[in-house]
Amino acid sequence: MAPSTLESTTFFFLTYVSFLKKATRWSFRLHSWLGLATGLFLLLFGLTGSALVFRPELDRWANPELHQLTPGPTTVSIDRMYRMLVRRYPNLTKIVLHDFPQGPADSYEFMLYRNLSRVQDAYLYFVVIDPYTGRILREGGYDEIGPSFWRWLNLFHYSFQAGAPGKLLGAVLGVTMILSLLTGLVIYRKHVWNVLRFRERINWKNRHRALSSLHRVVGVWSLLFNVLLFGTGLVMNATYFDPATWRLKPPIQNQVVPVSLDALLSRSKQRVPGFEPIAINIPTTAGQPILVRGHFPQTTFFLYQGKASHIAFDAQTGQLLTVDPIEHQPFGKRFHWASYQAHIGLFGGLPIRWLYVVLGLTPGLLSLTGAWLWYRRTRFKRQPKLVAA
C-alpha cells in the first residue's frame, strides 16, 4: 500500500474512532437524562399497559352483575335504548353502541362522547343497559374510578387522567422513549450480538453487576417491542401536536336520527354476506352518516381485524351511502388502525397477549435499573472529592 493511501486510511480510521467515542459519550448523557426525566412515567406506562392487555376479561370478571342477567320474554330494541340516551344526555358529539351482548345473559354498552368545556376533562362516558328491560345498570365517566376501575385505568394509561394535555404528554413521552432506546443501542452496540446469541447473560456476582447486566440484556431483547409499543402510541396521540385538536366546540343540541337503527343493522348484514357488526356510530349533529362498523369476511390481514371496516347510511333517510372495507380506506386510516391493533396486542391470541404482558413490564424495569446505575455512578464520582477533602 502506498504511503499516501496508508495515511488516508489511518486518518479516516482515527476520525471514525473519534466520532464513535463522541457519539457514545453524548448518547450516554442523553440516555441518562431522558431516563431520569421520564422514568416514573415509563414505570406507569408499563404497569398499566400490561394490566390492560386483559382489560375486557378482567372488567367482565369484576362486574358479573352486568353480564349474568336473567333473560326475559322480550327484548328492547336498539332504537328505544338510543332514543332514551340521546334525550337523557345533552351536548354530545357522538353516541356509539360499543358492545353488543355476547350471549342471552349479557348487556348492551353504549359509549357517549361528551362535548367538553375544558381541554383537561375526559370526554368518554359509558352506559350499560339491560336488553330485556331497557334499564340502565351502570353508568359513569372514564375519569371516575367508582363506576369502573378498568375503564378509569384505561384512560389513565392513555392520558394520565389529564385530558388533552395528558395525551400530548403521552405523545412526547413516546418520542423520548424512542430516543432513549436508540441512544441505548449506540451505547450497548458491542453487546447486542452477544446478547442475542446468549453469549452474554446476567451476572449475579453482586448487586451492581446484576443490575447492570440486567439493564443491558433486557434492553436488547425488548428493543424492537418497545420501539413498536411507543411508536404506535405516538401515532395514536400524534393529533394532539395539532392546535386544531385543542379547539373547543360550542354547546351541541343533540339531533335525533329518524331512521331505525335496528333496520340499518339488518340491512348491513344483508348487504355484505358474512359481515360481523361490532359497533354502531350514531351522530348527534346534522350532516354526519351512521356507521355500522365491524369485520368483513374478506379481511384477512391480522392488523386489520376488529371494527375497522364500516357500512355508511344517511342519518336522515337511511339510504346506503358507501361500503368501506378497511383495505379500501385511505392509507392514513389504515395505518392508524394497524398501529392501534399492534399497540393493544389483540391480534394473535393468548400467546401474543401474554407476551405483551411480560414485555410490557420492561419499560418500568429499565427505568428502575437505569436509575440505580445513574445513582451509583454519580455517588462514586463524588467519593474521590470527599476523600481529597
UniProtKB/TrEMBL annotation:
Keywords: Membrane, Transmembrane, Transmembrane helix
PANTHER family: BLL7967 PROTEIN, IRON-REGULATED INNER MEMBRANE PROTEIN-RELATED
UniProt-listed InterPro entries: PepSY-ass_TM
Gene source species: Spirosoma rhododendri
Ranges that cross the membrane: 30-54, 168-188, 217-241, 354-375
This protein's record includes keyword Membrane: yes
Organism superkingdom: Bacteria
Record-given protein name: PepSY domain-containing protein
The UniProt record lists the keyword NADP: no
